[in-house]
Amino acid sequence: MSLDTVARAHAEFYAAFENGDLDRMAGVWADGPYAESVSCVHPGWPLLRGRAEVLRSWALIMANTPFIQFVLTDVRIEPYGERAIVTCSENILTAAEGTDVGFAPGGSVVTTNIFVRDAGQWRIWLHHGSPVLNRIGDDEDFGGTNE
Question: CA-CA distance, 64 to 58, in Å (whole number)?
Answer without folding.
Answer: 10
